[in-house]
Amino acid sequence: MIRLYTDDLSIGYDDRLIVKDLSIEIPDRKITTIIGSNGCGKSTLLKAMTRIIPHRSGSVILDGGNIAKENTKTLAKKIATLPQTPESSSGLTVGELVSYGRFPYQKGFGRLTKRDYEVIDWALEVTGTQDYKYRPVDALSGGQRQRVWIAMALAQETEMIFLDEPTTYLDMAHQLEVLELLQKLNSEQGRTIIMVLHDLNQAARFADYMIALKDGAIVKAGNCEEVICSDVLKEVFSIDAEIGRDPRTNKPMCITYNLVKEPQK
């Protein structure tokens, strides 16, 4: 089932066109990872699909409607976004930050209801951050802070969560902790997860569907076996990759690689 897709989407900044006439489909209730080299348009695409930035032409369609015409609060009940480097106001406690996820449901003076508090506590529990509820966000480690931001996204009660490089700046253990949490949200709650990842092996390990971008265009989209292969990685990253199998997941993985050398002239 496809609830979210783009149709001939073009995105740019000033005079520079980053993405041109891009049409993609995001599988519902699956984990989709987007890979590509720096500057290829991954983050730009995510921002346009969540209406953080406007697009120049084409459309982003969600549940049959163009998101450009959707009411902001209505859209926020369908899509939650975790940017690459989220920032919060200094001095906020974890509970206060997570409560911001309830904004789409607030009316009048914006007071939290009993239902809001129940959802906030649930989001903290699911992400394992309930013990931090009254602690300042600034006092947390990188991995703890990232889980709190995911809790805020969960508090929106959306069926789709977009994440731009959610493992950036985290050590290996915290990277795995965050990705396993997202996988759990997908498998147990049916959340559709769309995320940009730099690590190819992590992208393959946790994805049901992958999109490889180069210069704002799709090189390959499909399952992990179709995308994590030497031909695709050579075109996307200019590397000569040796592909094997992850012994624990049986997913394809990049074992080693060399740069593709340009022929001598």
TrEMBL record:
Q: Which InterPro entries match?
A: AAA+_ATPase (IPR003593), ABC_transporter-like_ATP-bd (IPR003439), ABC_transporter-like_CS (IPR017871), P-loop_NTPase (IPR027417), Siderophore_ABC-ATPase (IPR051535)
By its UniProt entry, which SUPFAM superfamilies does this protein fall under? Answer: P-loop containing nucleoside triphosphate hydrolases
Q: What is its main location?
A: membrane
Q: Which UniProt keywords apply?
A: ATP-binding, Cell membrane, Ion transport, Iron, Iron transport, Membrane, Nucleotide-binding, Transport
**What name does this protein carry?**
Iron complex transport system ATP-binding protein
This entry carries the following GO cellular component terms, namely:
plasma membrane
Membrane topology per record? Peripheral membrane protein
* Coiled-coil residue spans: none
To which species is this protein native?
Oikeobacillus pervagus
| Localisation | Cell membrane
On whether Transport is a keyword of this UniProt record, the answer is yes
